[in-house]
Design goal:
Pfam families: ANM3_C2H2_Zf, PrmA, PRMT_C. By secondary structure, the protein is of the alpha/beta class. It is built from twelve helices and eleven strands.
Length: 400
C-alpha cells in the first residue's frame, strides 16, 4: 500500500495497527539515529504493533546494522522527528481552563526532557563501551579567560589545513579505528577522520554549534560513521570555555585503547619579550588621567589579567624561550600545573613592556608525514592569537 506522506504512514500505523511512532520515540528517548534504527528494524523484521509497544531496554534495534537503510530512498528516514514530537496545541474550549492547557504543555515538556536525558545516557553508554584509538582537536589555551565562542573555526586556514594534512597524509593511523573528537565544533575534523577511513567517529562538544554539526554530518551523508554527543566529556557537560587539555587527559585515561594515540601528540609553550610603549600607554598609563581624573588604582585590576590579541611581530625584542613540553599521550592532570625558570635573550636595546605567550603543536607519533603549526606572532595568525602579560612598569633592556 502506498501513502502520500510520512505523516500518512504514521497515522495508518496508529489507527490500523495501534502503533504510535511518537509514543515509542518519547518512551525510549530516541534521537535521530535511534529513530533511523527503529524504522529499519520495522522494515526488516515486520513486528506487530503490540510487540513494539511492549518493549523495554535493551531495544532490539540498537545494533549498528540497523543504521543501513532497508528500503532505498526511504522517505521515512528523511523525516524530522522534531515535527513528529511537537506538542499538540490545546486551545481552551468546552470549559477547558487555562490551567488545564498549561498542565498539558508541562506534561509534554517533561516527556521531552526525559527523552533527551535518555538519549544522552544511551550515547554516553555507547561511548563508555568503545575503546577509542585516537583523539583529535583539543585546545591548549593560555589565557585564563577565553572568547565566547571557542569552537574549532574551519575558516582558520592554519589550523584546519594542518589537521587536514595530518589526517589525509597519514590515513594508516585512522583506517578502521574508533576516533573520539574532543571539542568537535562544526564536525570538520570528524569528517576528515571519516574520509580517512575511520570505522567510527564520536564527536563531543558542549556548545550549541553541535546542532548545526548534526545537520552538516547528515548533509555530507556521514551519519553512519559519525555520532555527535552534546555534553562535557567528564560527566556529560563538555568544558568548552576554559583549557580543554585536562578534559583530553581525562578522556585519554578513560577511553583510549591500548596502542591508541592522542593527536596532536606534542605541544610546547613559549614566552617572548615585547617592547611596545604605545600599547603600554593604551592599556596602563591611560588610567593615570581619564578625562582629568586619576584612576591609577585601576592598574592593579588590569595587570593580573592577560590580554589576548594578535601581536605585531615588529614589537618582539627577544628570542623565544620554550618553558614547557607536553607529551599528550603521557601527560597527567598535575603536569598542567607547573612553574618554570626561563631566560630571554634580548635582541634589541629598548624598553620591555610585556611578556607574550603562545604554543606550537606537533603531529608526529607514527606519522609518515609529520605536520606542525605555531600560534606565535611571527607566523600566520590563528584564532588563538597570543596571550600578553603586561608589566606594570617598563624595564630597560640591552641587546645581548
Amino acid at each position: 500500500r502506498l501513502f502520500s506522506s510520512a505523516e500518512a504512514v504514521f497515522s495508518h500505523c496508529k489507527t490500523e495497527h495501534q502503533f504510535d511512532v511518537s509514543d515509542v520515540i518519547q518512551k525510549h528517548g530516541l534521537d535521530f539515529y535511534g529513530y533511523i534504527k527503529l524504522i529499519n528494524f520495522v522494515r526488516l523484521k515486520k513486528p506487530t504493533g503490540a510487540y513494539l509497544s511492549s518493549l523495554s531496554s535493551p531495544l532490539p534495534w540498537e545494533g549498528e546494522e540497523y543504521l543501513k537503510p532497508e528500503l532505498e530512498d526511504d522517505l521515512l528516514l528523511q523525516f524530522d522527528i522534531e515535527d513528529l514530537c511537537e506538542p499538540v496545541k490545546v486551545l481552551p474550549s468546552n470549559g477547558l481552563s487555562d490551567s488545564m492547557v498549561l498542565l498539558e504543555q508541562l506534561k509534554h515538556a517533561e516527556q521531552r526532557a526525559r527523552a533527551a536525558e535518555a538519549a544522552l545516557a544511551r550515547a554516553q553508554d555507547d561511548l563508555q563501551k568503545m575503546n577509542c584509538s585516537a583523539f583529535l582537536n583539543f585546545l591548549l589555551y593560555l589565557s585564563r579567560k577565553s572568547e565566547p565562542c571557542l569552537f574549532f573555526d574551519c575558516q582558520d586556514k592554519v589550523r584546519t589545513e594542518s589537521y587536514r594534512d595530518f589526517i589525509y597524509q597519514n590515513p594508516h593511523i585512522f583506517k578502521d579505528k574508533v576516533v573520539l573528537d574532543v571539542g568537535c565544533g562544526t564536525g570538520i575534523l570528524s569528517m576528515f577522520a571519516a574520509k580517512a577511513g575511520a570505522k567510527k567517529v564520536i564527536g563531543v562538544d558542549q556548545s550549541e554549534i553541535i546542532y548545526q554539526a548534526m545537520d552538516i554530518i547528515r548533509l555530507n551523508k556521514l551519519e553512519k560513521i559519525i555520532t555527535l554527543v552534546k555534553g562535557r566529556i567528564e560527566e556529560g557537560y563538555f568544558l568548552l570555555f576554559e583549557s580543554m587539555l585536562d578534559s583530553v587527559i581525562y578522556a585519554k585515561d578513560k577511553y583510549l585503547a591500548e596502542g591508541g594515540s592522542v593527536y596532536p601528540d606534542l605541544c610546547t609553550i613559549s614566552l617572548v619579550a615585547v617592547g611596545d610603549m604605545n600599547k603600554h600607554v593604551d592599556k596602563l598609563l591611560f588610567w593615570e588621567d581619564v578625562y582629568g581624573f586619576d584612576m591609577s588604582c585601576m592598574k592593579k585590576a588590569v595587570i593580573p589579567e592577560a590580554v589576548v590579541e594578535v601581536l605585531d611581530p615588529n614589537t618582539l625584542i627577544s628570542a623565544a624561550s620554550v618553558i614547557k613540553h607536553v607529551d599528550c599521550n603521557t601527560a597527567s592532570t598535575p603536569d598542567l600545573e607547573f612553574s618554570s625558570d626561563f631566560t630571554l635573550s634580548i635582541t634589541m636595546s629598548t624598553q620591555c613592556t610585556a611578556i607574550a605567550g603562545y604554543f606550537d603543536v606537533f603531529f608526529e607519533k607514527n606519522c609518515h608525514n609529520k605536520v606542525l603549526f605555531s600560534t606565535g606572532p611571527q607566523c600566520t595568525k590563528t584564532h588563538w592569537k597570543q596571550t600578553i602579560f603586561l608589566l606594570e612598569k617598563p624595564i630597560p633592556v640591552e641587546a645581548g
